[in-house]
Amino acid sequence: MRLFPTEPIVSGLAVFALCLASSAATKKVPIDQLFPDKTVAKGKGFEVKESEIDKAYLEFKSASAANRQVVSEAERPDLLKRLLEKQIFLKIMTQRATSEDHAKGIQRAEKLIAKFRDGTGSDAAFSRYLKSMGLNYDDFRAKFVDQAVVEEVLIRELHKKIPIEDSEVQKYYNDNPEKFTQPERLRVSHVLIATMDLQTKRPYPKSDKESRRTRIGTIRRRAVLGADFQELAKEYSEDPASKERGGTYVFAKGQMAVEFETAAFALRIGEISPVVETAYGYHIIKLLDRTPAKKITFDQSKERIKQSLINDKANELMPKFTADLKSLYNVEILDDKYKR
After folding, report:
1. Does domain 39-157+317-338 have CATH number 1.10.3210.10?
2. What pTM value is reported for the model?
3. Measured between alpha carbons, how far is 253 from 262 in angstroms, rounded to an integer?
4. CA dihedral sign, ordered 142, 144, 145, 149
5. Which of 36 and 338 is assigned the larger pLDDT?
6. Check whether domain 184-292 has CATH 2.130.10.10, yes or no
């Protein structure tokens, strides 16, 4: 005995499916009508689509994750508003860019990209970073260029109009002597054998830790017997930030783990440390160079001070500068969830 009248239902579904197929055959609905990408803001000569904000949000989350930071769901509403404000600003400034702004922006972007690539340690590490961000090189470069062009417009339209007197620069130098003393700096190479998962921060089991202590001891013996220390770092170190550049770091006091720093500053040039344990694991360190502390002169500092003072004043003026631009371009935010 059947509890449910399955045959009439199946027949009805078949008829319904045929009707849908017939309707689709006679009238094709464009994909943008099925899934509309609504405009969330507009102004003179531009509009901002919701998909642009969604994409910016995902990129922000990816960048945060790459830096081991988490964006909580509670932060999302305010973050979306800020991302929309940024997108509006970028679109307005892009419209205001001259051909000279574009040329200077491209030059600035290429320098920044080269510096960023060098900072990752190698082309392979740079590629891994792009992959973690969900970007290819062309997209990455385009973002740098867009941002650099906007910065050139900002320099031309705001920064260069801010007057800074020589007396202001001199006063800042005289009032902040601690900012113009370069501390002693070390250049070292090191090998790390980690005692934790460096991504999750979870410690390895005790038995694994003991074997890792033995491994770093073996590497140290090879270094003491004359093996090329930086080649050992490239081969064995588990520090992803320095491995591919031979384990090198340049730093002053207060910038590294205390145990690492104490051992490094106690070394003579060319000397190799005993095994040093930090929260990250076991290290051996070789001191490559030592730069003594020195006073930075006013002449060496004045352009940097002037630029810093300009930046400070520009930050103070930015809210009004942005508000004036939004008024000039008749900016409207069309979705209440993005309104402040």
Report:
1. no
2. 0.67
3. 9
4. positive
5. 338
6. no
